[in-house]
Specification:
Keywords: Membrane, Transmembrane, Transmembrane helix. Pfam families: DUF554. The protein is mostly helical. The protein is built from eleven helices and no strands. The protein has one domain.
Length: 226
């Protein structure tokens, strides 16, 4: 799991730099940067979502995933975890949970995460995860400078998700076909779109509750291969 460890370290370093920049930046600059992050998240989400091979998979995944997340009350559980982590970090940020979830989705929804984790898990040199670490480290500077310390704590779900894929690469390799990865990535793009809308305060969308949609997207792609 050296690739995931390096990836997490890059996020911590980049996020720390971002926090230092945030503490020295005028509030107006932070506000405009915050809006820029929202616009970027929306544009990235759109670019990922339009690559879906089957739009019906994405629609039903979001609907079923949202219903599942609402019944499981994932957003409430995430808020409670965020509050506990805030106390540990001694942070007063009002965007703590938002920063953690936004950063996690930005860092982990692309095919680079899945392919890189499988590459290392099967004994290969983690070239993809090293390249991803550079990109995530740079992105975390911008994210932390606007969304705060929650970005650093995004390494917790990242280690669980990306590290889990690495550890179980041999078991999941046969299921994670190009089509499955594409559908997961496209559905993740729709979640990013929702996050961007929330960040810009256009409409509060319970994106966290829609995270199970990723599992439904994978299931649909596996069941309806053709």
């Amino acid at each position: 799991m050296i690739g995931t460890i390096v990836n997490s370290g890059a996020i911590i370093v980049g996020g720390t730099i971002g926090l230092l920049l945030k503490s020295r930046s005028p509030r107006k600059l932070t506000a405009i940067a915050f809006q820029g992050i929202g616009l970027f998240t929306i544009s990235l989400g759109i670019m990922m979502a339009i690559k879906a091979n089957n739009i019906l998979f994405m629609i039903f995944s979001i609907i079923l995933g949202g219903i599942t997340g609402e019944l499981l009350k994932i957003d409430q559980a995430m808020d409670r975890m965020g509050e506990k982590l805030k106390r540990i970090a001694r942070s007063e940020s009002s965007h703590f949970a938002e920063g953690m979830v936004t950063a996690f989705l930005l860092f982990c929804m692309g095919s680079m995460t899945v392919l890189g984790a499988i590459e290392e898990g099967l004994g290969g040199y983690p070239n993809l995860l090293y390249a991803k670490s550079v990109l995530d480290g740079i992105a975390s500077i911008a994210l932390a400078s606007t969304l705060g310390v929650g970005v650093l704590f995004s390494i917790i779900p990242l280690i669980i998700f990306q590290g889990g894929l690495t550890l179980f690469a041999g078991s999941v390799q046969g299921y994670l076909t190009d089509n499955v990865i594409m559908e997961i990535s496209a559905t993740g793009g729709l979640l990013l779109l929702g996050l961007g809308i929330s960040i810009l305060e256009i409409k509060r969308i319970k994106t966290i509750n829609m995270i199970p949609a990723l599992l439904f997207a994978a299931a649909f792609a596996l069941i309806f291969k053709g």
